[in-house]
Design brief:
Chain B: This is NADH-quinone oxidoreductase subunit A. Chain B: It comes from Candidatus Segetimicrobium genomatis. The complex is a heterotrimer of chains A (about 160), B (about 120) and C (about 325). Chain A is an all-alpha fold. In chain A, about 75% of the residues lie in helices and about 0% in strands. Chain B has a single domain (about 1-110), classed as NADH:ubiquinone/plastoquinone oxidoreductase, chain 3 (Methane Monooxygenase Hydroxylase, Chain G, domain 1). Classes of the chains: A mainly alpha (about 160), B mainly alpha (about 120), C mainly alpha (about 325). At the B-C interface, helix 1, helix 2 and helix 3 of B face helix 1, helix 3, helix 5, helix 10 and helix 12 of C.
Chain lengths: ~160, ~120, ~325
């Protein structure tokens, strides 16, 4: 097995294990903190795919900013009192069965598809190449993003301020 | 390039080990005594009043929120900055529009008091 | 090179950097701080332990190693323990992309010259914030929690101007790689072309490391010790390592981005780097022992209402000038 494959399986294991903790932990702060290894695992996968810049962004935004935001939000709500939440309700068994069926469908679907290698040239993932695409073919997306950010900022401020 | 990141991964793992090393040393050689007062939370020497974990003000949330929006903005500026030098004047005006819209956002947050601490 | 040799080289480099930072930044830096504070306050600093007090920090570290390791009863053990690892590790990760000089034949002396060097630095600095939140939370102590929350708000507010300063330099150099940025300063240093960005970066760096005048979150008279109030012995030392390590890393990055890195005539490059680094460290410490501290609303307002608009304006003006010059 190549080094890359080993690295991938280790990263996948870390991500999945943290994901399980995020979903199953009764302590909501533990759930939030378990997001960090999950994000770092995804960062590793991006690196294996050759997308260095996206990996850097993933750490900066997700592990750095979003985790902080989530922790602040948790502290503002009742979760901040160390509340322990029930993780399961009466529909536990049915839920488990549905999950197993979906998983089986996905596995069958993935293994049965004949994945072909793409024929086009791989897009380059360096910051320079991404910049070129921002100023070239994806200019509208670039400008549109600023509008999306503006709208989300305004929306969030309106919602947060109204609750005062 | 993958080799670069392999090095970084080794740095992180070995580094975590080296940071944990002093903790191991302590666990081995530090004295231990167990009387209940020692494990109490510190509050200027008096017994604690109320829980530490309580509801907090919305201002922390607002700051981190505005921060996330601006962090994503500067993410978009990194690739732009790297190739900017060799582009024509169009690149300047494109970025000017981008920054202008976000400056509007900052102004809005400022006027609506999202940047106040009280 | 076969993989096991690469692995060995990586491990050796890591151990070297960690030990280097631990000795130079944490041990020597703390001693330097005490000596400089003493000099500014017209008194003598540590003088007894070792010649001129040089072994003082070693003595302190040995003392801390033997201290008992207390976990408060109501603390959250997992988070309390993992925070200790996150903060110093994130601070030390900063050193991966710093070029310390050149080794024979012009090869840069850097752990690894990543293509996204500057972005990597910003990302690892962001990780320190999460560690601090975890420490403040996990302690279940009002002072620690408040300190952690305020510290996180402060660091997060100053990351934006720091990022804008980094972007401006990256724009001038045309690359995010620290080695290329140092190479691009062959004619003159970027501090000449970007004095505003330099000042912004230094101010933001001071706030990122929670130093005076931005140290409200760990001022003794305010919050005991802020987010690390409940940490005893070696854990306390590890947080200090994280803080001083981060300060040195910020200074090293400022040297790399604005002061020409290891460039300089006559003397060997590594020596130039060290000289410039300590010049900036001296400035940091000088500021610390001279200025009073800001209130939390003042320091947050300063970042969002002054630094960010100035940094944005600087970016636009620089972009305009570059456009004119390159037409």
């Amino acid at each position: 097995m190549t080094g890359e494959a080993i690295a991938f399986y280790v990263l996948a294991a870390i991500t999945l294990a943290s994901g399980v903790v995020v979903v199953r932990s009764p302590n909501i702060v533990h759930s939030a903190v378990a997001l960090i290894p999950a994000f770092l695992g995804v960062t590793g996968v991006y690196i294996l795919l050759g997308a260095e810049f996206v990996a850097g962004i993933q750490v900066l935004i997700y592990a750095g900013a979003i985790t902080v935001l989530i922790l602040f939000v948790i502290m503002l709500t009742e979760g901040g009192t160390g509340l322990r939440l029930r993780q399961v309700n009466e529909q536990e068994t049915i839920g488990a069965m549905v999950a197993v069926v979906i998983a089986a469908l996905l596995v069958v679907g993935i293994t049965r598809t004949g994945w072909h290698a793409g024929t086009g040239a791989l897009p380059a993932y360096t910051p320079g190449a991404i910049g070129q695409s921002f100023l070239g073919p994806n200019l509208l997306v670039f400008e549109g993003t600023s509008i999306v950010l503006l709208v989300s900022l305004i929306g969030a401020i309106i919602i947060a301020r109204k609750e005062e | 390039m993958l080799l670069d990141w392999g090095y970084v991964a080794v740095f992180a793992i070995v580094g975590a080990g080296m940071v944990a090393l002093p903790l191991l040393v302590i666990w081995l050689i530090s004295p231990r005594s167990n009387y209940p007062q020692k494990f109490e939370t510190y509050e200027s020497g008096v017994p604690t009043i109320g829980q530490a974990w309580s509801q907090f003000n919305v201002r922390y949330y607002l700051f981190s929120l505005v921060f996330v929006v601006f962090d994503v903005e500067i993410i978009y500026l990194y690739p732009w900055a790297v190739i900017y030098r060799d582009q024509g004047p169009a690149a300047f005006y494109d970025a000017l529009i981008f920054l202008g819209i976000l400056a509007l956002g900052l102004l809005y947050a400022w006027r609506k008091g999202a940047l106040e601490w009280v | 090179m076969p993989w096991y040799l690469e692995l060995l080289r990586a491990i050796a480099g890591t151990v070297l950097i960690f030990s280097g930072v631990a000795v130079v930044a944490a041990m020597f830096g703390v001693l330097l701080e005490r000596k400089i504070s003493a000099w500014i306050q017209s008194r003598l600093g540590p003088k007894h332990v070792g010649p001129q007090g040089l072994l003082q920090t070693i003595a302190d570290t040995l003392k801390l190693l033997q201290k008992e390791h207390i976990v408060p009863r109501n603390a959250d053990p997992t988070i309390f323990a993992s925070a200790v690892l996150v903060v110093p590790l994130a601070a030390l990760l900063d050193y991966v992309v710093i070029p310390f000089g050149t080794a024979g034949g012009g090869r840069p002396l850097i752990f690894r010259d990543l293509n996204i060097g500057v972005l990597f630095f910003a990302a690892t600095s962001a990780l320190v914030v999460v560690g601090i939140l975890m420490a403040g939370w996990g302690s279940n102590n009002k002072y620690a929690l408040l300190g952690g929350l305020r510290s996180a708000s402060q660091m997060v507010s100053y990351e934006i101007p720091m990022g804008l300063a980094l972007i401006t330099v990256a724009m001038l150099a045309g690359s995010l790689s620290t080695v290329k940025i140092v190479d691009a300063q062959a004619h003159w240093w970027y501090v000449v072309e970007q004095p505003v960005a330099f000042v912004i970066f230094l101010i933001a760096a001071t706030a990122e490391v929670n130093r005076v005048p931005f140290d409200l979150v760990e001022a003794e008279s305010e919050l005991v010790a802020g987010y690390f109030s409940e940490y005893t012995g070696m854990r306390f030392a590890l947080f200090q390592l994280g803080e001083y390590g981060e300060m040195f890393a910020m200074a090293a990055m400022a040297v790399t981005l604005f002061l020409g890195g290891w460039r300089g005539p006559v003397l060997p490059p590594v020596l130039w780097f060290v000289i410039k680094l300590y010049a900036l460290i001296f400035v940091f410490m000088w500021v610390r022992w001279t200025l009073p501290r800001f209130r939390i609303d003042q320091l947050l307002g300063f970042s969002w209402k002054v630094l960010i608009p100035v940094a944005l304006a600087n970016l636009v003006v620089t972009a305009y000038v570059v456009m004119i010059v390159h037409r």
